[in-house]
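Lay summary. Proteins are chains of building blocks that fold into shapes, and those shapes determine what they do. In this project we predict the shape from the chain. Here is one chain we studied, written as its sequence of building blocks.
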Amino acid sequence: MITVNIREDEEFIKLGQALKKGGLVGSGVEAKVVILDGLVEVNGEVEVQRGKKLRDGDIVSYDGETIKIVK
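And here is the predicted shape, written in a compact code that computers can read:
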């Protein structure tokens, strides 16, 4: 499981940013495509909003990889 930290001065990280920071996609454009294609799950549910706000404890799954969001 990959861990992605939210900046200390922030309360959330957006889904597209988390995918990039976790190394699962190479660019924001790639993140947008895989999210809009319904290939990304947040907490077990398909998520199609690139700007979805992720908070501490959220779990993101894509392409057999898992990211845990931590504060």
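What the prediction tells us: The first strand starts at residue 2 and ends at 5.
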